[in-house]
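Quick question about two entries, pasted in order.
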Amino acid sequence: MKDGTRMTPPRNMKHDILEKLSQTMYSFKAYPEDDDFSSVAKPLISKHPCLTEPGPQPGWCGLKNSLKFMLANYRTKLRKAGCEDVTINGGKRSKGNPEGESSSKNIKRTKRGEANYLPNLPKGHDETSLENARKVLVEEIKKKRQNGILLSQMMDKSFPLRRREIVKQEPAVQNMVEQWLALFMERQVFAEFNRIASKSLEGDFFKALDQYTPRFIELFKTKKGTVGQKLTKLMQHISWMTPDVTALRSVVLKDISIVVGDDSSEFYKTCPDTARDEALEAITIGVLTVVSEDSPHQGPSSMNLQPISTAIILERSIVIDDIRDLPQAVCLLFGLTYALHLDYPKCMANTLEFIQTVMLGLGKKTLPPKLLSLKNSLLG
């Protein structure tokens, strides 16, 4: 420590160090990114300066590269052992499999902070036993008075089977509705999100939304030009004397999409009750608000705080209806993108990514300029 003498660890010692680190990293994420490797290698050198590598570089780049190779070897061992989250990416092009798919193409890995991306089947169970649990769910959901405890138990038990089907086969949403109807209950959407991301979606979503709302409103008032006009038009729906919580949440969610450059008109749809079927044809994924015939429903800046119904649309079909309000519908739809392993719709990709990374703290650390600017303004 005094004279900066470096240590050259024996080969077996270095192997043990890298192996333990790679095993620990894998327990968090099967496919870490470059920043993740840096965040492991750098503190190791800080704590044990004798392991610093010679040369002009920071002193831990070689360790980081070695760690990448060690983790790749560890994944190969796990793939041979049958671990689901790495086995799914087996069969890629290699010397032994020259006709396989490109090693960098269609890799199935965590991208949005999923803690349980593709779990193994539970010990003592196989696909047949979990399929029986799914059948129990189907029969229970048909009953007028359902056993909520049994539903939750069977959903927990069948999670690995359901996740395997969703990630590997990427079925149509309508097929999932037929096979796993219980997944589209509000309570189970939040439970499924917790299974995947280990977070309380409903609690964390509204806590962050309410916490940042005052700052959001201040930022929106400072915007000028076309964006400022759109924001002002939406904020006219808020009564500042006794602001309604639902109105505030709805305005903030719609205003975020304007600030980050999304076209929310393709996502938030409103229609009179007589034109519901026509509206379904015009929306692939989003929130449909149904209002009465004499309601001022036209225009993207209309809030419609007392609708007849609010529904979530996926692949032009209603999957959850009679939701209490628009913010709850956005929260549920966000949860369904995780539960069904869906890509964010292009028209709202920035907004949903902002909710994911900033409001819920999930996934990647680097953000596009627009989202980073809003984050800095919000937290600054």
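Here is the second entry:
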Amino acid sequence: MGGADESFQLLPSYLYMLKLKNPGTITEFESDSKSRFKYLFMAIGVCLAGFCSQMRPVIAVDACFLKCKYLGSLFVTTCKDGNNNVYPIAWGVKDSKNDASWEWLFTKLRSTIGHEIPNLVFVYDRHKSISNAELTVFPSALHVHCIYHIGQKVKAKFKHENVHALFYKATKAYRESEFHELFNELVRYDVAIGTYLREADLNHWARAYSDGKGFDIMMTNIAECLNAALADARKLSIQCLMEYINNMLQQWFYERRGHASKMGEHLTSWAEGEIAKRLALSQYWKSEPIDMYRFNVKDGNSGGIIDLKAKTCTCRVFDFDKLSRGHALVAVRSRNIDPYSLSFAYYQIEALLCADADPIMPVGSQADWIMPDESASIKLLPLATRRKCERRKTCRIPSASEEKMRVKCGRCGQIGHNRQTCSNPITLDEKKEGSRKGARVKHVQHKFLY
């Protein structure tokens, strides 16, 4: 596939051909005063058109390290389509994870998708550079912190047995009353937990304090999925990596078009499956009409008042999911209304077909490239920093908020080693237990032979 140095020199020509083959594609790169590579931004035209017209405006942002000859990080922005699949938006490569590189990438993203998208939401971990860049470039967007990263920090910082599970219940609570009940239970374990979570700002991680824009996406796992899909490709040189991403998306869009064409008439298969589950759960719930559009639904617990015209419910489940669930299904059943009509356009098959309608074209063989003199004459040198001459790390580096798995010895109970590598002295009780086990084994063998 060529050398790493030659790959940087080939990159401008490759990006030119990529834009030529795929209309609407935006690619930009930047170099320093010595013509050394600094940043790269790439967004395929089909992905951009699909996101801007047919997708939920919730973007997960993440970055992962590259494993090639030179240092650098891969920047990923992605969302979910109506069938709950990962839908990539834009990619980037940067020399380091600092404020300047993140701000450059977000500036390019803003010029690509526009800053006037209503109800735009960004989900990311609590990396300071990401937070600073997003607040600078997208000040009016809603910023959500990944609850997985906060949960890992809580788990590592506070060593109580039930705190981690209780935190997740609190983050996913829809009502403020339910949230406060769980949050107060957390504080009973340790007052410091409440202080730490309040400092993390409830508006950024608690669903009960959100305004309903974030739908059901509260983690960056969709971006982590892309990082995992490119685990081997990140060993490639930069031009080969961009080619691998393009080919991967080409295959994904082809398969999704075929799958979408076999779905029903109304909603995607995932959305219909979710509605079917809720129909089974709500078949014995009762509704009391208030007026033409509002109903008081009783489910045996707290219930909720559903407004079919405004598409809201006091339980807030309908507000977040934007899908006919629970109380909404009981209300439409009493009025003989089609439950599919209440679901938002993002879940409709028509939106899914439009998002995956156009194919992604390959660049083709380098021998067939016809380059203008401007692109062919660009000189682009590799990054100024390269890896040390040692075995390269290929495993994921845990973030500062993640707790590393600790091994516990099954014999002495200490942390840091296992039974086979245990060097602690054997106690007299263990010797007696070992001799008894040996005697039992010999007895069984003798019984088997005779």
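Reply: The radius of gyration is 27 Å. The chain has a mean pLDDT of 84. Hope that helps.
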